[in-house]
Amino acid sequence: MPSPAVARLVVLVSGxxxxxxALLDAAAEPSYGARVVAVGADRDDIEGLARAExxxxxxxxxxxxxxETREGWDRAMRDIVSRFEPDLVVLAGFMKLxxxxxxxxxxxxxxNTHPALLPAFPGMHAPSDALAYGVKAxxxxxxxxxxGVDSGPIVAQVTVPVEPDDTVETLHERxxxxxxxxxxxxxxxLAREGFTITDRKVRFGR
Length: 206
Ligand code: GAR
Known about the structure:
Elements: E1 7-13, H1 18-27, E2 34-41, H2 47-54, E3 59-61, H3 70-83, E4 88-91, H4 100-105, E5 110-114, H5 126-133, E6 137-144, E7 154-161, H6 168-193, E8 195-198, E9 201-204
Parallel strand pairs: 1-2, 1-4, 2-3, 4-5
Antiparallel strand pairs: 5-6, 6-7, 8-9
Helix pairs in contact: 1-6
């Protein structure tokens, strides 16, 4: 991706939106190099959307249940996101897989943050799966979305310890603290410096 003056981010959320908030806070500083131009979701009444509204940003919701097919939902998401002309699309706690049409429209510019050290523990229940496995360290991964499940080229990873008394909640919260810093740092660099992907290796710069 070449680096525009200030990169336009569309962020998709499904829940609390603390990662979105971290991006909003960082982008308040013009030197960050990116700004959130719209926030979308696959459900109503979530704190992530409320955060966007408080920030004065346009929001949109497209629920899978509103469409006859999953492909129809995917195209509707693509169409509404396209209207905001994003340089990067950031899935920040977005709990749906985007499909082929969506990915084709934003080729190589869709990022997802995941609460585990991929390729370990892909899927919807990463902190719980990591705890059940008994790993001593976990973390978060920022990656470029491809057609698979949490399988795309890795931009950045951060590790946290797993403590003996951890619950899913305490582990996920520790991951999220580290995840937010990683997300903000990495999205800023991607926006300011651009990036290339060769043989799965993501490199900052043009
Ligand atoms: C984050 O930990 C993110 O990695 C995870 O949901 C959380 C969202 O928190 N995403 C996934 O599990 C995607 N499979 P937030 O709504 O407070 O930003």
